[in-house]
Amino acid sequence: MLSDFRGEVWINVHSEILKAMEEINDEPLDGGYGDDVYAKRATALMQANFDEEIFTTFAINGTAANVMALKAMLDRFSAVLCAKQTHVNTYEAGALEFNLGNKILTVDSPDGKLTPALLDELLCGVQNYKYVPKVVSLAQPTEYGTLYTRAELKTVCDYAHDKGMYVYLDGARLPNAIAAQKTDLRHMIGETGVDAFSFGGTKAGAMFGEMVIFRRAEFARCLKYSQKQSMQHMSKSKFLSVQIWKILERELWLKNAELSNAAALLLEARLRERGIKTAYKVESNMVFAVIDRETFERITKVYDLHYWDEKREVVRLAATYLTTESQINQFVTMF
């Protein structure tokens, strides 16, 4: 079965990252558990995007990054607010609830994005001894590939802060959002009020690894203990942090995102030529195609895909920086 369009985790490691991991194997270990030189270099590169001091830690994958970040931001009795479709609520096997015991409160969103109106709807049922909302969790891009504009992010952050809450942003695909909107981390994160976010390495070409960034010192009090408790305390941490450093230092995150976004737009255009509609506007590297069951059964004999929304017959097609025009043309011949 072809894994083309299944997702970014189904492609190999970027050659520059693999080379960097091999090269540092000849260097002596200068510090483990995130205290190595490459962790410090990666943090310095990320710090350059912000005026205030940031605090970072590292995780093996996006789910671990989300759990570690939210653990630092939540009290034992507080709750997370998010769109029903958000990854932390749908595709992480209840990792947050299982590991932290905190409640996730959700509201349905037509495009995967949260707004003050939707949050008002969600908060109207919150009373003493029910839930204590503490963190609004966003994904950029959303699970539908849609994007918050800078103004929309700021509006949600202002709303959350006015209510005494914080904002966490799942940035597993954050490079795609930044590339699509032709902006940067300073404008999308620093100037909107996001309190903490993850920066995805895995979907940007790494073998594994994400960086978690906190913009408030109170969330960084016990990061080393939290990392250990979360089973993300890597002994030979340089092999994780060198990947994030290389992605930042060489701007692979931006270059790869531009390629995958462009591939998604080309895929959408080719599908449109075949009369295939999309369920959501293509704003990043994901195309949500509406495919009837007869066609779907024929395609899935060749391609490893599944319905994202069975009722509406929606299939997610994810483009990567390695997606070629040839692969796209071959795929659309199935229609």
Give the ordered list of helices and strands: HHEHEHHEHEHEHHEEHHHEHEEH
Mean pLDDT rating: 95
Task: Give me the CATH fold name of the largest domain.
Answer: Aspartate Aminotransferase, domain 2
Q: Which strand order does the major sheet show?
A: 1-7-6-5-4-2-3
User: Nearest-angstrom radius of gyration?
Assistant: 20 Å
User: Which structural class best describes the helix and strand composition?
Assistant: alpha/beta
Largest sheet: 7 strands, mixed
- Estimated helix fraction: 25-40%
- The gross shape turns out to be globular
Can you tell me the CATH class of the largest domain? Alpha Beta
Q: How far apart, in Å, are the first and last alpha carbons?
A: 17 Å
Extract low-pLDDT stretches. none
Number of strands: 10
User: How many separate domains?
Assistant: 2
Beta percentage is: 15-25%
Write the CATH architecture name of the largest domain. 3-Layer(aba) Sandwich
User: Count the helices. How many?
Assistant: 14
The CATH superfamily label of the largest domain reads: Type I PLP-dependent aspartate aminotransferase-like (Major domain)
Question: How would you characterize the overall build of this protein?
Answer:
With 335 residues, the protein is of the alpha/beta class. The chain folds into 2 domains: 237 residues, Aspartate Aminotransferase, domain 2, CATH 3.40.640; 81 residues, Aspartate Aminotransferase, domain 1 (Alpha-Beta Complex), CATH 3.90.1150. The chain is 39% helix and 16% strand. It is built from 14 helices and 10 strands. The strands form 2 sheets. A 7-stranded mixed β-sheet has the order 1-7-6-5-4-2-3, with helices on both faces. Strand 4, helix 7 and strand 5 form a beta-alpha-beta unit. Helix 2 runs parallel beside helix 11. The longest helix is centred in the C-terminal third of the chain and has 22 residues. It is globular, with a radius of gyration of 20 Å. The two termini are 17 Å apart. The relative contact order is 0.17.
